[in-house]
């Protein structure tokens, strides 16, 4: 029997991220693009963390490997936030959860962990699910790239860089936790600013809007909630087996899917349900195998 408090903490984190698409859409409707929102929120988070743990900055500057962690974490967060703001939330979350499949390939290439036959089966299962989610019923696999929307592409990039982030965290397990956290938060902030500025110069992102209490209040509140969610994740994951953590975190898919369908931000089709079932099954299989 697992203690209830760590499980509850993980559920809170999954709930916060599963519902995060809604405040991003509220800020977008108030004039703040998700890239600017990401930059603003994580600037607040970094400021709070530096006040609480100033020594973590020195550790970050001394460890070049943390800069790579910051880069991938920033791309991952930026892509996810943008995707759930402009795309079908269910599709985005399901494609994002290809992460366990990407991990098989990355662990093989980066960590030298040869995939087992069951790992390769999970890989086929997950990518088959993505094909069902992304491809229209009358389209061929060869036309997959032609049918990708901006949100689909962002979800694929976000899921891949999320997997890279997980691999890097495994390689940097000896680095103090606060330094790793600061690297990830700083990467989210920096990549948010850089991507927003480049996007604005290319005409893809509107200019930073004038101050508006509507988006400012949501940004501050969401930043605080994401900090709370990160603390809950650290608390729960440190006290539960990895297999239990992985299973509980899959509830994010449920929270995001149900909330987006109820609020009209996504549509459920038979192919999406079938593909989503394959993706979640592959992720669940990978998690349980870690026992």
Q: What is the chain-wise order of helices and strands? A: HHHHHHHHHHHHHH
| Uncertain spans | none
Annotation, overall tally of beta strands: 0
> How many angstroms separate the termini?
15 Å
Structural class: mainly alpha
Structural shape: globular
Beta-sheet strand percentage? under 5%
Describe this structure in words.
- The structure is a single chain.
- The chain is globular.
- It is mainly alpha-helical and 291 residues long.
- 78% of the residues lie in helices and 0% in strands.
- The chain has helices at 4-19, 21-29, 34-52, 55-62, 64-86, 89-96, 99-110, 117-134, 150-171, 177-201, 213-239, 242-249, 251-262, 270-289.
- It contains 14 helices and no strands.
- The two termini are 15 Å apart.
- The mean pLDDT is 85.
List the helices and strands and how they pair.
Layout: H1 4-19, H2 21-29, H3 34-52, H4 55-62, H5 64-86, H6 89-96, H7 99-110, H8 117-134, H9 150-171, H10 177-201, H11 213-239, H12 242-249, H13 251-262, H14 270-289
